[in-house]
Amino acid sequence: MQQMVLDGRYELDRKVGEGGMARVYLGRDLRLNRRVAIKIPHHHQLNDNDFLERFRHEAQAAAMLSHPNIVDVFDVGRDGDIHYIVMEYVEGVDLKTVIIREGPLPVARAVAIAEQIARGLAAAHQAGMVHRDIKPQNVIVTTDGQAHITDFGVAKSHLSTALTETGVSFGTVDYLSPEQAQGRPALPQSDIYSLGVVLYEMLTGRLPFSGENAIAVAMKHVSEHPRPPRQLNSQIPPGLEALILRALAKDPAQRPASAAAFAGMLRDYDRLANQETQINPGAVRTQAPEAPSLRQLPAQRPANGGNSGRVMIPPPRSTPARAKQQDGLGCGVFVVGMLILAGVLGIVLVFASGTFNGVFDGFFAGGGPRPTSIPDATSTTTTTPEPSPTPELLVSVPDLSALNGAAAQSALRELQLIPVQLSESNSSVPIGQVISQEVPAGSELRPGQSVTYSVSLGPLFLVVPDVIGIRGEVARQQIEGIGLIAQVREVPSRSVDAGFVISQSPSGGLRVEAGNVVDIVVSLGDVVRLPDLIGLQRDQAEQILAGSEGLTLSFVDEQGCDRLPNCEQYRPNEVVSASRVLASGEIIGLNNGDNVPRGSRIVLGVRAP
User: Fold this and answer.
1) 51 and 153 part of one domain
2) From 133, 151, 191, 270, the catalytic residue
3) Which terminus, N or C, of the chain has the lesser number of Cβ atoms within 10 Å?
4) Does this model's pTM top 0.70?
5) CB-based contact 195:121 (threshold 8 Å)
6) Is 133 a catalytic residue?
């Protein structure tokens, strides 16, 4: 089958990975004759202009990065309706596979991998980019133990066109920082938190938080503290545990100040541990020995099957145990065996020399079957025709829309298709039910091909931020920034300064469905509403001002037709205007219902009798 070539340069070979937004193919750059990885969005993303714009922008931003621990981006382009990113091809396995097969990892090895990831993040942050999706699946580990960060598909950079993108699906919330779970913009410290989760998982073989669905896990990131990792792995030194818990702090300000600082802390921990071992080696003899750091690991796996720095995904083949030697038989058995071997070799040589050619022809001619395995030297070999190739087996993709996630998996596996399940919040589809599938029902695929579908997590619930006491505009931004609607009402207050939030409903800390309204009451300061005086008769207006709290009548300005335009439309003694006198003596016009500072002096304009 002819292989696809993009823009006449990049030849696609085979699919090597798939995520929620794109597939990754192994390919070749025909111009430079080198292997590359080519990332192509899923078909359903082609109609999403916002996604395609982010896809291109973030690829351009990632292409600016150059670091040993970051997968290089070589090119970004479009061939017809196919958008693609060309990246460095790193031969290795993702860190998630390493953890599943070998976890928990030795302390020194886990720390060395985390340090490399931190250094790659430091380079990205220095270039103004936040990855936003650090997880083991996005880290490739080579056979010599080098870690490479990949998949900047949801990264945030200075090239992006918005502060946040609503509707972006991250596929998993297991590594999501609390601020991201609350819908706030990701910070460099958000990547540090995610790396802390990765380090926790490398050392314990478990995630710090788990739940029945993604929403439950996200809420635990926001509100719960992780179980100390030393309770799961006693080999973790206390100092390293403290560093992990610091990286997992809920408040970004309490985490390491930068990824570079975090890398330095990990490096210092490694050096300090080595120094302690050299100064007092007896102190660690009672504990299980830790693996050496990646800088000291040998290239080959030790003969005893222990862990090494080389990432070996297939389990090592077991060596058969040698049978126990029997007393008194060693020499005799050896001699007999050699004699038998010599006899067999002699017979083979005699037949090979042709000495017995034709001797058995009479036997075969007499009806004995000639063995087809020893053809006559002069005979002609007849080739049996091969059977016609059988048609390629295809299966029809089922309709998954009425199924739940488990039933969809079963239906696909029965057809020998590979289910790829994604999750996303959806308020109109029940929890666990399939929302959509990438390959339409009725399409024909070969067994072994994958079918991606999305399962509903139900409505997205968010934690209402506590905004009491902060400025109203900032409160509105916080509420709307996580996907809620802010409804602002302003009222006078003698105790809260103007512009600050007095109260809110629902209260901060409660969980509500995304899109709900949060009412906030903002102070107007110590002000008094001007009664509806304009249009009343003079005596009515004076009586109202006399009974009002916080306002006084300064004087009444009678205006005749020589001063009052269109005076014929007003009745005699009708209030035609209201003003307040400032301390400077300046007079400012007012309207009915205006808020004025408490204690204001009011001037009434009245048509002369």
Assistant:
1) no
2) 133
3) N
4) no
5) yes
6) yes
